[in-house]
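User: Some background: our group keeps a shared notebook of sequences we're curious about, and every so often someone picks one and asks for a predicted structure to add to the entry. Today it's my turn. The entry only has the sequence so far, pasted here. Could you supply the structure so I can complete it?
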Amino acid sequence: MPITLERPMISDFDIHLWNESKHYKAYQKLGAHLCTQDGQEGTHFAVWAPNAKSVHVIGDFNGWDNLANPLSMSEETGIWLGFVPGVKQGDNYKYYVRSQYHGYESDRADPFSFYVEKRPENASRVWPLDAYDWEDSSWMETRRKQDLYKMPLNIYEVHLGSWMHSADGEWLTYRELAPRLAEYAQEMGYTHIELLPVTEHPFDGSWGYQVTGYFAPTSRFGTPDDFKFLVDTLHQHGVGVILDWVPAHFPKDGHALAYFDGTYLYEHADPRKGEHPEWGTLIFNYDRPEVRNFLISSAIFWLEQYHIDGLRVDAVASMLYLDYGREPGNYVPNKYGGRENLEAVDFLRQFNYAVKEHFPGVFTCAEESTSWPKVTRDPEEDGLGFTFKWNMGWMNDTLEVFEKEPIHRKHHHNKLTFGMMYQYSENFLLPLSHDEVVHLKKAMLTKMPGDDWQRFANLRLLLGYQMAYPGKKLNFMGAEFGQWGEWNFERSLDWHLLEQDPHKGVQRWVKDLNHLYKTQPALYELDSWPEGFRWVNCDDWEHSLLTLLRFPESEADTLLFGINLTPVVREQLAIGVPWKGDWEYVLSSDNKCYGGSGVSATPGTIVCTEDVEADGYEQSIKCDLPPLGIVILKSRKPETEEEPEAEDAAQDGEEAATE
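Assistant: Of course. Here's the predicted structure to add to the notebook entry:
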């Protein structure tokens, strides 16, 4: 419903926040807002263009007349604003900007537009922010109280345009996707969906990473309210939503941010600082207060208006280094002569602080591919302030081993264990993302060596090993059922493969793994603490075997993993365990229901410890490790390790008394 506005639209306090780069909700003032003014219904417009000679609103309502509706500039801010009566919801509009310099003039989309025409058109559209009635209050209240580091976080990464198509091969709308995606994620046991950028972008082939609308969900799949319905539906099914957010760069499209008012406004003027040579895009000038307002307001906007639960920040490494992607010497050093982008560092710290300050329970995650220190430490500790960081080292090392024939894996065994050397330097998330299944890198299944049976077994083993290793989890769509082909953003996933048993088996394995993850605190409570993980044996490189333990805080239900990276069955392998008692088989990737050979014991089978030394422990269990497989066992730690007999005697006495 339209709101009643009282002038001035921009208050003295707004001016103070704007100039201090702390106007974190600038979208409440800038952009197009339906309102009633002086008894007339219409829309209030506001746009930042400090170097413009004049700015006019043009659109459907005035026949795109360049001179019909002029705006007035606030000298303190460089913001042009004004009210246009009769402009209603859904009307298309742009700004006709005439610069003070070089006679430059251009028609521009609104940087703060909340809705945009469907590509290839690019006009902004008037749309209210407060028309949708949310039904996720229970989710939102619970979210505020969660401990982000000790909660299960198992992410299903999705590209909305290619997850699933209609029967005639067309995109599904947000509202059509909502029940399908929510029910699938819930059934499969994922805790969160991560969406490749849904911020508006003109080029499908950018997958959303070349953003022109930082406040607008793409109109490819419907309206802003339709996107809210998608998020709302996921929340009501117990599934969180993470948005892939791109503050690192923006495209040169002439209707958007580039050279906005005839000057280098959002970007640097010097191409050595303002352009990405590899991507052909422009770099934000993070030193400008107004640019920081724009970007942080965008982040806050998605969290407030769309109830987003987390932001994955793309290409952080490209923001941190002034020489990123550049030839030696072809960059401008910082004031100390170094290659670190100090302004970007300050911006990232400010962004992370703003998110945590305004939205308890929301997390940020950095895609950062270098060894930059303290990415997930607080700014007070000289950190960047992110909640989590993608563990690209783990991903690269793990895939390098799994892509090799099993006979060669023993020569690269250390790549599977090296990551523990830096595991607790950051709060890590383990990604097997979209970047690994494009550009001739092959799908996860076809990366795996061997015949078809071995490929499926290797894939199940890879996904099981990811679950065993400490860190939050992320997998790109299609891997959960063994998609054969590389991801193609123009095509739907090959859901018909689920008619075949091997693919159905992988999907069932992932489903059972995911549900185990959600119900076993050992797999998530202590991801970021060394107390939660212990190698039992990581040195058996000759046989390509790994055994490890995962502990919860209470040690009530400890999990033991046995991992065999060869197609040779390891019969009655002695595995050392830290205490006496029973160990129960929970899952095995080799069970026949998953497409395996059925070598290992079935779930529910109990094995007892023996007083036989192994792996530095005084007791051990024996189990069969299946070919190219992983087995998971669970044990409840005795309350008193040193006095089991006394405990048993007391129990016997109680039973005798009862009789």
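Suggested note for the entry: The mean pLDDT is 94. The chain is about 25% helix and 25% strand.
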